[in-house]
Amino acid sequence: FPNAIAMEPLPGQDAFDRGIKQWNCDFREALVHFRAAAEADHVGGEVYLCRLFREHATKLPVESREKPEPWDERVKAKMAVLQERAEAGCALFQFLLGLCHDHGIGGLPRSPAKAAHCYELSANQGYAAALHNLGWCYENGSGVERSGARAQQLYEAAAAQGNQNSLCGLGVCAERGLGGTRNLELAIHWYKKAAERGCMVATHNLGVLSQNAQNFAEAASWFLRASRVGYASSQVCLSALLLRGLGGPADLLAGLRWLRCAAEQGDKHAITSLAFLHQEGMYTIKDPRRAVCWYRRAVRAGSGDGRLHLQRLLADWVE
Length: 319
Description:
It is a single chain. By secondary structure, the protein is mainly alpha-helical. The chain is built from 18 helices and no strands. Helix 11 (184-196) packs antiparallel against helix 12 (200-212). The protein is globular and about 65 Å long.
């Protein structure tokens, strides 16, 4: 793949590029940069603000959250220009149009196939974010036929430009053997490269691999790094280690605090776990009524286990 073709920078482009670098690293920092880009009338900043408030609002401080609809409307008002620039061959606008198809932004219906096509047009010009997103499409079979080898090739091209999410993607390929043979040492190598650049998914994955190897102290260290920037899965894992005293002394208060942090983000595993702890009186006061409240939240979050536990708990009360 060629390096990205130079284009006349748009107002707010530097802020947009900084936001891209913080995506999946620290959504709070990404918000600052994308807002600055949007204030400069950069449509990419508006696209990402819509995504951020629609898909990741719970990872932001409550006072920073907004409704995504106004940003969606701003993108919709610029859709004709966005499509025109994309059809003219601008890699950035091809990528942004792909995002709009991918996530149903700007009045466009979700279309994984159209998203992948736009990403490919942009990736063929060497645009790193498009290379990564197209790699993700091939890894997951979204809009294209699944191909681990193709995903790895695209991640390599984006990683060569320093894309931290693609460094993580290479770790996933090595861990799962998507591009060939499974290689945990190589996976750790790539995850550490991504974690050094702040990728919280890679940081979490390092914690999981350390935990699987029974190295609980190291696992706790990785989970703590990701937990501090709001990664709910790491908060759940760190909570479990703290409650059980694995990797260090048990700390019930900290363990419950991290579990609540994940639950407040809507993590269904955290919500179900809190309900169960209150139901059984484990690490906290036994409180069936509070358990019912948490189980109902778990059901709303889509937890099948939460629904089953709630039905059983309510049935016991009736009896």
